[in-house]
Amino acid sequence: xxxxxxxxxxxxxxxxxxxxxxxxxxxxxxxxxxxxxxxxxxxxxxxxxxxxxxxxxxxxxxxxxxxxxxxxxxxxxxxxxxxxxxxxxxxxxxxxxxxxxxxxxxxxxxxxxxxxxxxxxxxxxxxxxxxxxxxxxxxxxxxxxxxxxxxxxxxxxxxxxxxxxxxxxxxxxxxxxxxxxxxxxxxxxxxxxxxxxxxxxxxxxxxxxxxxxxxxxxxxxxxxxxxxxxxxxxxxxxxxxxxxxxxxxxxxxxxxxxxxxxxxxxxxxxxxxxxxxxxxxxxxxxxxxxxxxxxxxxxxxxxxxxxxxxxxxxxxxxxxxxxxxxxxxxxxxxxxxxxxxxxxxxxxxxxxxxxxxxxxxxxxxxxxxxxxxxxxxxxxxxxxxxxxxxxxxxxxxxxxxxxxxxxxxxxxxxxxxxxxxxxxxxxxxxxxxxxxxxxxxxxxxxxxxxxxxxxxxxxxxxxxxxxxxxxxxxxxxxxxxxxxxxxxxxxxxxxxxxxxxxxxxxxxxxxxxxxxxxxxxxxxxxxxxxxxxxxxxxxxxxxxxxxxxxxxxxxxx
Length: 557
Fold this sequence. Notes:
Blueprint lengths: L7 E10 L3 H17 L5 E5 L13 E2 L2 H6 L3 H4 L5 E2 L2 E7 L4 E3 L15 E2 L2 H14 L3 E4 L3 E6 L5 E6 L2 E3 L5 E6 L2 E10 L6 H9 L11 E10 L9 E7 L8 E8 L3 E9 L9 H8 L6 H4 L3 E11 L10 E2 L2 E3 L1 H4 L10 H20 L8 H8 L2 H8 L3 H8 L1 H17 L41 H7 L12 E3 L4 H10 L3 H4 L5 E4 L8 E4 L9 H5 L5 E3 L14
Parallel strand pairs: 1-2, 1-13, 2-8, 5-15, 13-20
Antiparallel strand pairs: 3-7, 4-7, 5-6, 9-10, 10-13, 11-12, 14-17, 14-18, 15-16, 16-17, 19-20, 21-24, 22-23
Helix pairs in contact: 1-4, 1-9, 9-10, 12-13
């Protein structure tokens, strides 16, 4: 479809892409400010999931700091932060045993007293209802697929709701060209490695002078377990096995609600061994004698995966561009050692809303909201991220055990001395894609077969994510060069896409003689984690939005 498409347009003061914690908080804050000023402001939120919360996945232990500023009476309002943390537990795992390091002098900001275990998806569902009650227009199932620009090059808005393009790229009988949503300011809150935020960062050089962004993959399961296995309010984090000292990552396990156990595994995507499968490392981890007893007799009820931004302070892009801003995880505001970002996302949405509201009240539109970045620089988000800026680089450089110790000491000193560190600000170095080693330097890993009780395969896991994509649409996972997977990635790296994808999207198929390899993309399995876009060593895979509300539909995640 190369011809110019005629579309209807809708006008708003602010259009927000993504109904996550940052986008919804921005929408709510805009309406609060308008009410306080006795004026009106029109706000639209676009959500690619079939409903608000459908594509939200997080651990999640939530610091209520952001929500307390947005909605000071959140407890009375009924925000579903349901289970207060009662106990923190930290373990260093070996192949068969554990070392309980909960006694160690962890800094207070790594402990979870005063935080809540919850489903971030359900928190977003609640925030969406609250936003709509304030007059925000929310459009679920409306993927924003394209940026629209003004004649002067500033962002005018986005295209959303394109439906009915067949797998051949031509319109079907159900074709709808979508609509253009125009705004005085467009907020991008797509989450990690969003397709529009990636385009905007490149177009406006927002990453210039910044360090490379870094990522991890987080894989999560939700279990319901017997009373004997359950301790309400317990949070447990582990380091070490099954990962070696040079591969960053670890696990989380949170007990909350009605005997729910949220258990997950994070692998930093700067790993070198191309034969690592994060999904299979997670399944192997659950069989550890310190972990399996929590799950025995229980039932796995949900599964999902998503990438996590880990670059932190030195990797944040410029937060504003002509006509809009980046929010939350679209910018990369996760605090890695705390394994938290939703509180920063909420605050970023509030700061952006305040900057945009002031500009609109002053008669401005389409310009650069520099005051948003200035407000960020003076906020507790920047202070928090600056204090832990060297944690990830030290972990990557020195390995898990020395790196965690050095990173913790550095962060403690930075907290004491207003952000000062003896190392200054360390660089991350290579991108995660460029960190991938050559297949000839490593041995393939033979993972244990799943037992179907504690450990499982990818396809049965994807089934639990309720993932669905209409197969009669162009694949939203696009190869820049279709020859690269077999001609470059397979001989050079062993084609790691077949391993790093947690949903079985990518396969290398052979004929009956074991010859003539063919690269197959099962895009209908995609859980939208974006790992392929990040880790592919040839940077040949481009993740784009599928049509409609397609993708996972996460319950209580």
